[in-house]
């Protein structure tokens, strides 16, 4: 249940529920942010990676002599140079098992390819020089002799018996043959169904396209034997442990990770990359810091991509239209190596999220995770959660058409009802709260569903097709893990929050400060946030899976309670009263104050902190400070949900699609900052529209990246997006102290089905029943042309 000790002080200007602008915005807008590439260290050198120009091939030799002759070049390194130093590799830590109970076939990825290259962009060497220009010249002088092998880029094709094999120990290129569910019961449900709907759905591959390319600086202190890596990340504590335990093979205390501002990640910067070991190795050998900053072309090749699944989806309905079972049979593309998260999206996250907010009693998911000669896949905003919702919503919409039912009525009859909570889903999740039909009804009203026929007629008068689509969603967030919540009262009168999540664009400083301000009554403007120094952390789950506020917020709430207990003891000494008589309250301005019950005698929390800091000869049982270092334990995942409604217009002669209206109603539980939550939803919706209509990674048969720049890869711009209607219909979460449900990835979960259902609705007059993402003008035009000639 939400913690009843959180005071009800919603009148506070900076309390929970207030739309407070982000504290970091003035800093970032004035160019005062400090990203990794802004960091320059004394004596630093520069590194440039040498990457494979081929998707698949055997390395016969790497000639570096010419590169070493380039003026300014100090070192050229291959995997042979790294070998013998005791380094490890990058691997997938997920404890996933095959259908037969055996563990997944893991891939230990070295920093540099040694025997074979497995995708275009696979790093094979790196050059370190006095300047970036010299390092580039040196990299161009490295010659890599590769015997080119046939390549395969699609997962289903890579699973074929005659496909090129990427690894000898991975037969059929299959690292995981995953199965979830009772196959016999599901088969029985389909056999008994009054109607079965089937769709073949492609979940298109995405380039992450973070605003800030990856960048890092490696340092090594010979005296202490300690490595320091300045790098954009999603959590310094987790990255420190991965680099220490898996890659460097040193005790964690020998590694420090520092992260400043981060210009976006969306999952891509969450884990280690080959470049990081290369930089630290060179820094150790050369005795100077080594800096590397990627360029956009190499980012397209080397940053982990997102999505990429080929799915056969099936839905069984009874005679009344109630769902009996849903079944997914999928191929999941892993790329050339196995990232830390790649197998999760098409396996566990499909299972958790295909249920959505419907009372479907049976789920079956079968996924073969396949290696291909492409850039490795990693988590991308939602990481399987938007996809699960998308599959079910497309199935449900198609089922309504096939059975002649109203799609809204079909949703209503299948919704989990409010009286069913807590609801035990066949995925293993236990939903704690929600009012799904009420959210749908409010969205229909806000979107003026009944007024659509008039808008459709107006569009037709202009020669345009118009369609509308619903995207119901329920997302299973990542469960909050152990998270640090440290509160430190500083000598300069500020209060520092230290926690292990990491803001890579979300704006954690403001909502975390709102939580602390409400819990302790410390001045909002005095609160600072520290997240990016692993030396200050004893726990930290990083940011991902829409859990940051649930994790760090809960840690702050619990730590604040400990501050109050320390404060009552300290105030009792200061006020010469019994601890039992000390109460904690807020004054007229909402500031925290310890008082003697029944009197007007008291001391403000900030004054108390100052007096403790300067106390002479304090009693032995009086706290030295109000500082608290606390670790919040684990909590269950939460279940943000909502309903998005989209309207599109299509120009039939060109296939151009425009999103013209967009409304969303969301249940994010207790909302700390409505302004920022709306912004998070807007960002997710924009990325969902991008995937639905524009973005697609394309490879040639030889594995060459055809969409390798912004001339070939389309991102949505502000002009491509409508105004987003955003409303809230919250039901507080019952499993974390704040009652929050998470919001960071939900925009994608609602937008993918809403946009694509609207598109299919617009094309339905031609008999089109399905179209895959991205619905580019060429693809839409072709669908119309083929339907006209059918």
TrEMBL record:
Q: Does the keyword Transferase apply?
A: no
Tell me if Oxidoreductase is a UniProt keyword of this record. Answer: yes
Where in the numbering of this chain does the Aldehyde oxidase/xanthine dehydrogenase a/b hammerhead domain appear? 30-150
Report the protein name in the record: Xanthine dehydrogenase family protein molybdopterin-binding subunit
Q: MF terms per GO, please?
A: iron ion binding; oxidoreductase activity
Q: Pfam families in the record, alphabetically? A: Ald_Xan_dh_C (PF01315), MoCoBD_1 (PF02738), MoCoBD_2 (PF20256)
Q: Which UniProt keywords apply?
A: Molybdenum, Oxidoreductase
